């Protein structure tokens, strides 16, 4: 017998009717009848007498009722205990992120979250897109920030659309007198590039816009080194706008035409089954940073 069959039994007793019990439990009358018949078959005796006025407990049913109530009360106590444990708002959450989210968002997220949930600890792991994806898939972190294009088969909740910019040395003279940069203007330039695992969105943009074979003499792994080389006049690069908030070097930047973005999101291996503390942080991030409307 199951808790549902006990709930059906208790509700039929309380309503004195299979039909009314079905309405309360949002079941069909036949489902209620089947549940009671299954109980009676398993127990080996009848629980109800049936007549035109409705149903009434048999002597056996009357003796069984207190025990059924005790089971259901115990289940209710268990559910309340679980809710109480969740309500303690304690725990530890491991978060993976890439550089620009770490420097632009994470301090604010940690401070604001700790104001609401001071007993939940956040552990932070910084790496590339590939690192964060690996950490999520292997349970090293509970949740992580990724770009939409780097998430692969991981579920991801889009949060923020971050424009891609063309970054050039200070005083760079554009070929065209426009406030934006086109792929045609960039195709003959030397690029400072990063690994595709670090900048998947930039690599995709370049391939889609005929920049897949540009000259690349400098291959680095972090944003600051990339901009330092550009500032020194050694080439140009494409960089997300969020990255440029942290750059101390004097460079010029242009929006691109066609417009290009990376979409930043929050990812978890199974967003529907998160530990309570993880779920609280996951929701906190969405409330604080989600600006992309659902399609």
Automatic annotation (TrEMBL):
PROSITE patterns hit by this protein: HTH_LYSR
Pfam families per UniProt: HTH_1, LysR_substrate
Keywords, sorted A to Z: DNA-binding, Transcription, Transcription regulation
GO CC terms in record: cytosol
Keyword Transcription: yes
Molecular function in Gene Ontology: DNA binding; DNA-binding transcription factor activity
Domain (HTH lysR-type): residue spans on this chain: 1-58
Family membership noted in the UniProt record: Belongs to the LysR transcriptional regulatory family.
Protein name: LysR substrate binding domain protein
């Amino acid at each position: 017998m199951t808790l549902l069959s006990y709930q059906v039994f208790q509700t039929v007793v309380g309503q004195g009717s299979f039909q009314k019990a079905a309405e309360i439990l949002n079941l069909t009358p036949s489902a209620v009848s089947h549940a009671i018949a299954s109980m009676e078959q398993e127990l080996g005796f009848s629980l109800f007498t049936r007549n035109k006025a409705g149903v009434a407990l048999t002597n056996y049913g009357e003796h069984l009722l207190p025990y059924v109530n005790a089971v259901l009360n115990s289940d209710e106590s268990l559910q309340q205990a679980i809710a109480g444990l969740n309500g303690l708002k304690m725990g530890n959450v491991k978060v993976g992120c890439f550089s620009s989210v770490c420097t632009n968002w994470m301090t604010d997220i940690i401070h604001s979250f700790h104001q609401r949930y001071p007993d939940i600890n956040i552990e932070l792991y910084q790496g590339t897109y590939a690192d964060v994806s690996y950490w999520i898939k292997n349970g090293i972190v509970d949740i992580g920030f990724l770009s939409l294009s780097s998430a692969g088969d991981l579920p991801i909740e889009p949060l923020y659309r971050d424009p891609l910019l063309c970054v050039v040395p200070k005083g760079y003279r554009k070929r065209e007198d426009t406030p934006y940069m086109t792929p045609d203007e960039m195709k003959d330039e030397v690029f400072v590039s990063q690994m595709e695992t670090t900048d998947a969105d930039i690599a995709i943009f370049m391939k889609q816009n005929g920049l897949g074979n540009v000259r690349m003499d400098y291959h680095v792994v972090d944003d600051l080194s990339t901009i330092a080389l550009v500032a020194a006049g050694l080439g140009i690069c494409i960089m997300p706008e969020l990255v440029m908030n942290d750059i101390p070097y004097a460079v010029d930047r242009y929006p691109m035409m066609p417009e290009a973005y990376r979409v930043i999101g929050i990812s978890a291996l199974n967003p529907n089954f998160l530990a309570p503390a993880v779920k609280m942080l996951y929701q906190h991030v969405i409330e604080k940073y989600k600006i992309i409307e659902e399609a």
